[in-house]
């Protein structure tokens, strides 16, 4: 069995009355670990609650359908009881017909009742750090620039790229993990990486 990605434990969620110096003595509010096979049902239920049924019609889904996440880049956040309260996955893509390899991040989702507690930010930081550690050059996503800009994403390097379906161009954002990783990237983003087989395809979200 492959080893899970390193985990990150986090202190109390926003709203806790614990003093800062009491955090070490308490159980962490959530921990980030590599996603396991047993997380499929919980992940899909969380995505349905957080994003609704239309999530499968997004352009990003065309790049995820029938594929496995990039090796070592699928994470969940668990609360103190072990329940899945957050998820993020990154997928291998090709940036145009003859362009460089990259990663597509998404979906990022947090249990609706826990939004604002730092889970989403922690998942983002962890996913980006792991992608860099594994040697990837760039991460792309479709999302709101005001939110993802805090992690270094912008539309400055995506003007020559396109998603395979309807999308808002200003929401196609990228982060270079290596300087120049997006140089010359142009054309429609294409799916790459590992394929799923059989019934597992049904659970890709």
Radius of gyration: 17 Å
Q: Segments where pLDDT lies below 50 for 5+ residues? A: 1-6, 12-27, 199-205
Count of spatially separate domains: 1
Q: Per the principal axes of the C-alpha atoms, what is the gross shape? A: globular
The fraction of residues in strands falls at: 15-25%
Oligomerization state: single chain
Structural class: alpha+beta
| Overall number of strands | 10
Number of helices: 4
CATH architecture: 3-Layer(aba) Sandwich
Q: Portion of residues in helices? A: 10-25%
Order of helices and strands: EEHHEEEEHEHEEE
The CATH superfamily label reads: Gcn5-related N-acetyltransferase (GNAT)
From the N-terminal CA to the C-terminal CA, the straight-line distance is 23 Å
CATH class: Alpha Beta
A few lines on this structure:
The protein is of the alpha+beta class. Helices cover 18% and strands 24% of the residues.
List the keywords.
single chain; 205 residues; alpha+beta; Aminopeptidase; ten-stranded mixed beta sheet; 4 helices; 10 strands; disordered N terminus
Structure description:
The chain is α+β, with helices and mostly antiparallel strands and 205 residues long. It has one domain (8-193): 3-Layer(aba) Sandwich (Aminopeptidase), CATH 3.40.630. Helix content is 18%, strand content 24%. It has helices spanning 40-51, 59-64, 119-133, 145-148, and strands at residues 8-10, 30-34, 74-79, 84-95, 101-105, 109-110, 138-142, 161-162, 172-176, 187-191. Strands 1, 2, 3, 4, 5, 6, 7, 8, 9 and 10 form a 10-stranded mixed beta sheet that branches. It is globular. The two termini are 23 Å apart. Mean pLDDT is 85; it is low at 1-6, 12-27 and 199-205.
